[in-house]
Amino acid sequence: MFVAVGLQCAAVILFSVLTLVVSDLHCATSALLGGAAAAVPNGLFALRLFAQRGRHPDSYPAVFLVGEFLKIGLTAGLLAWIVHSQDVHWLSLLLGLIVALKAPLLALLLVRDAPRDWPEYEGE
Q1: Residue 119: per-residue pLDDT
Q2: 49-52: long-range contacts at Cβ-Cβ below 8 A with a sequence spacing of 24 or more?
């Protein structure tokens, strides 16, 4: 999960740098803020799932579901806060958000197989 968040941050930073080269600092900052609005909640969600490791497996679905709802709410709240507190370039903000949300799909291209040291499932 942390790899996906790291890839998400790298994609947003790369996109912001490309936006800075093509356009101006205002657009690059808006793209960075849009990407951060998705990357920060994903990072917090990854930390919460990491903290859940080692506990009873029956609680995993509830923690995942509540975490997903909180992540979506925090993303919407961050976007609303950014829009009301900053003078943003809308297209750059939305493109930064889209890059951040689509970056984990790139992880599927980078990681084709599961790690070799994963334990086999032992049925009951």
Answers
A1: 56
A2: 49/1, 50/1, 50/2
Q: Residue written as tokens 């609680």?
A: 59
Q: How far apart are the first and last CA of the chain?
A: 28
Determine what percent of the chain falls in helix, strand and coil, rounding each to the nearest 5: 80, 0, 20
Q: Which residues contact 97 (CB under 8 A, 6 or more apart)?
A: 34, 35, 37, 38, 79
> What gap in Å lies between CA 101 and CA 116, rounded to an integer?
28
Residue with tokens 């969600």: 45
Rounded to whole angstroms, the Cα distance separating 51 from 89 reads 37
C-alpha to C-alpha distance for 15 and 94, rounded to whole angstroms: 12
Report yes or no: 91 and 32 within 8 Å, Cβ to Cβ.
Answer: no
pLDDT of residue 74: 97
Write out pLDDT tens, residues 85-123.
989 999 999 999 999 999 888 777 766 655 555 555 555
Q: pLDDT for 36-55, tens place per residue? A: 999 999 999 999 989 988 88
